[in-house]
Amino acid sequence: MRLGGAGAGAVVLVLCAVVVQAMQTPPGRPSAAPEPATKRTRPAHASRGTERTKPTAKTTPLVKTVRAAVLQQRSTIARREFGGRAPQQPTVLLSRSDAAKGWAFGSSVIAPPAGVDAPPDASLFIARHVKTGWQVSVTGAASFATFARHAPADVVPDAERAPLAKYGKAAATGKATGLQLPWGVGKSWTMGSAGDPRLIAFAGGDGRVLAPGPGRLYRLCSRTSGHALLLLIHPNGLASTFARLTSLTPVKDGGAVRTGAYLGTTGRGLACSTGQAEGPASVVFGLLSGGRPAALNGVQIGGWTLQATASGKAVAAARPGVRVQEGDPLLNLGDGAAPTPAPSPAVTVPPAASPSASPS
Q: Would the pTM count as exceeding 0.70?
């Protein structure tokens, strides 16, 4: 009986040890033979763009590292854009990651402080995991293009490498952007001040906001309608931004869009915020050159030259012989060519009737 009791006690101790070992095994790490790589690695591809990458043991500290890197590299720029106000903690949105290879890609935004009418400081980041932790390269850094070239294809697809490498560098476009106005060709919307010379609000028509040119689309701040900020990187490195949109396009992050593609519908939600704007539903449009907001005064878009005062309180658009004030209809000319008036229909005059012969 004593031997039997001792044997049973030994069995219980062994079972307890097995349970303790199972509880101490880190989540996702097998206690026996390793799983195949196809089961162990689950990158968030562009096709899953509507879902956030689930945090892992490596991606959890990544967000903190990205925030620190963004503040280190962009705080001076953001402070200048926000009128000297100290920047807030960036909002980080992780788009794609490969835990096995140790790479990640996403966006970060420093929202303007309350009461400051300024565009958010938007940037993209690429990170890689090394023995000492995460290394992060943010838009504008010299290493960003290098990271874009060397990241695995499930984090930065091949089709996105060239646009990302150009983005963040000064776009050599001058005042000519090669872009159209962001709504249907041949239709007229009104424009209004957005409180900053680097932003302009457009409203009207059916509210459908369309891509002003081809490019790669990315979501910032949020993936939901209303408070997301859309970033469209064009082939020349210039980028356009769109805020207050609802019913966002289903195009995934990094997806290619063509000129005139649907982006969303005008709304009132403030980008990267929970607030709502007053007035009619609109889209707030901006341009980024060198990864930084560009002043819109003098910029040529859709055949019009935009005009904005230094305070951003008044906007207009002009072309030879025509000037459109804020609140007046602004016609989308498409490629910028002046519309050719339709010829007047020719009027056919019937020949005069011959006088009838008098009876003799």
A: yes
